[in-house]
């Protein structure tokens, strides 16, 4: 059972930056970040293949967010720049341990989830 622990959320003004971290208890094959705002569905934000470093992003965050990993620490990061009020949400780290599976940013492409960390962006 993989444990995921997120950190780094907080409150920031529009245009500011935050970096989220997600530490996994063991090696995973692919990891991702999702977010969910009140009254909205969970949305895939970014994903990364831990071995190759290949990344994918939702259109809404391309050019502003960067996902990266430190394999020595089993940790994935989400650097968020030029934050907007519409980025306000609970952010969740997700992981998949199996090689087989979708390369999409759909929630069903991952089988382990963290508890979430809140990001609030004010005007």
For the biggest sheet, the summary is: 7 strands, mixed
Helix content: under 10%
Tell me, what's the shape? globular
H-E order? EEEEEEEEEEE
Low-confidence spans: pLDDT under 50, at least 5 residues?
Answer: none
User: What is the end-to-end distance?
Assistant: 40 Å
**Rounded average pLDDT:** 96
How many helices?
Answer: 0
Beta-strand segment tally: 11
Strand content: over 45%
| Cα radius of gyration in angstroms | 13 Å
Q: Helices and strands: which structural class?
A: mainly beta
Question: What would you note in describing this structure?
Answer:
With 123 residues, the protein is mainly β. 0% of the residues lie in helices and 49% in strands. Strands 2, 4, 5, 6, 9, 10 and 11 form a seven-stranded mixed β-sheet that branches. It is globular, with a radius of gyration of 13 Å. The chain starts with a strand and ends with a strand.
């Amino acid at each position: 059972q993989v444990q995921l622990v997120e950190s780094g959320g907080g409150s920031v003004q529009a245009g500011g930056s935050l970096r989220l971290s997600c530490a996994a208890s063991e090696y995973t094959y692919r990891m991702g970040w999702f977010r969910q705002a009140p009254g909205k569905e969970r949305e895939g934000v970014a994903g990364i293949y831990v071995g190759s470093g290949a990344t994918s992003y939702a259109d809404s965050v391309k050019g502003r967010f960067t996902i990266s990993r430190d394999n020595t620490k089993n940790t994935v990061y989400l650097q968020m720049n030029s934050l907007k009020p519409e980025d306000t949400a609970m952010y969740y780290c997700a992981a998949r341990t199996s090689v087989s599976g979708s390369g999409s940013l759909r929630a069903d492409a991952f089988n382990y989830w963290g508890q979430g960390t809140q990001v609030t962006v004010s005007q």
